[in-house]
User: What shape does this take?
Amino acid sequence: MTAEIILFWLFAFLTCAGAIMVAASQNVVRMAFSLVLTLGSTAVLFLLLGADFVGATQLLVYVGGTLVLLVFGVMLTATGPFTRIKSSPADAILSGLIGVVFLFIVASTVTAVNWDGENGIDQKIAMGAHAKAVEGGFNPTQQGNTTRPLGLSFLSLRADRDLKLDLPKESSAETNTAPVVPGVSVVMPGVMPPPKSPVPLSTGYLLPFEIVSVHLLVVLVGAAYLARTKRRATT
Amino acid sequence: MDTLFAANSLAEFFQALLALVGFPVSAPIAHVIAVVTHVALVVGWFGLPAGLFIWAERKISARIQDRLGPTRVGGKFGWLQSLADGVKLIQKEDLVPKDADGLMFRMAPYIVVVASLAAYLALPFSDGWTAVALDTGLFLTLAVLSLEVLGVILAGYSSGSKWALFGAIRESAQMVSYEIPMALCALCPIVTAGTLNLNEVALLQSGGVWNWNILHPFNFFAFFVYFTCATASCKRAPFDLAEAESELVAGFLTEYSGFRWSLFFLAEYASMFLVSGLATVLFLGGWDDGLGVLASIKTASPNGAVSFLANAIGLLFFLVKASVLVCVQIWVRWTLPRLRIDQVMTTCLKYLIPISCFLFAGTVAYPLVLATMSGKTSIIGQPAGERLVQPKKAAGVSNAGATTESHLRITATGTEGSGR
Assistant: This one.
């Protein structure tokens, strides 16, 4: 167990702990600051993965920007100091049930990804996803190659996994000779070759990501609806 | 002995050192020692300037007000005053008001401290002497600096006091607005250099004062706008509305005492030094001596003890430049009256943001216009492209110094650089 793995689990735990505290707390401002914990730990996870830019953006956009706005909103709209939100036990059970179902959907889509699916390894190599990494072994902190593996994992291309398979060692970003890949004629690394037949890309992490995005949209609509009904009731 | 100075990272340095002394250790242990040393250095550098500049602030403010300031603690100049202050603050009772939200009230100082401490991670003190060498150094630093405001809001809100809440709201309005021109002006030298890596930005300015970014016509004005915004982001007078002791008792600090109060103070002085250090790296040539002596020494002997010594002297130059900027902040604080909150917002939204947008656009257009008119991208000094071609030193005794300079070395070999 390396230090990186220990740190990864520590911050993964903190991310989840913050998220649970957001749901469990009754104090609005405390919820907002539990969110700081979650979003900050997520940024640290990105940094641990070697995606410095994504990590810094996470900090700047979510923690430094969105959360400050959120706290501002909470502070200015709260009717009294230290506003509390109390929900009935029925609400808690219902939302807990929906939450578990949602977790199940996301978890099943994440685990169901077929990494070595129909699109063969040759195509993955041909996409130039990691022409450089093939030579020197996968290095997550490799410069200029940090966010690409993350993005490719959305399309079921995992640079770190593929490299553990037996691959043709010769590839060549520098010498400009075409990589020896059976069945595909590639000239330039980084350019997708015309596939022999239209092979559908497997979804990778894109499907869970989209599910979470839609979920966020639902939450936003719900929050706006709740805020509006409350205002209508008071006026 | 020379193997010590030829080490590419602190871990290699410790490995060589311990082998020399007679305790050879394995690479992971040397790595752990290097990490601990880095942390100790950064944390030490977090505390040391605070003590130093609090004393400087007392002396300078006293002289500006025609007083003597501390004269007794630790000899003639009272230079142990900060230590005495620290001891006094630690002895004070740790109070939490009855109406406060206890947990968040206790947590707030730590958020502020962690934010301003973490911002030191990517700041290079000399060539390759940085805790974490990042390609996105400036971006991460600005991101981390923007977290400080959260701690202040938290402190103000959880105190359960109106003074504190007023202070926090003023502070957040001010910080959120001043971040924009500050980031825009920090981008100007980045555009000139073409990299977000702070080490490379400073390396591109080495070789003489004529290469410094401050002599670039747009960066010259950007420096002053940046410095104004940086003063505001440190909550320093004339932008100290969050504290505003003549209006709000002590603003968001009203309910704090003892150690927690001193944490806020430490963070303030640490971030003063940080923004000054950032200004030094971005505009004032970083660790460059201004005459090109250090740069030519390092070009002549890129490795070994001489280069290490040159780096150490560079560190001194960096510290002096940054400290002078901190002293300017102190000078401004004790000279200018505090602005009203509407004046603060007007200054930012109506003046500083348009000015910084103009400067940013100007910095982008300047080399293009100059290149079409005179065929050269700068008037004073060498164009950045020509500076790149000079062979740079491989790496000093540093952490990951080798990786930070890979870009420069690739370009120096001249073949692969064009592909980027």
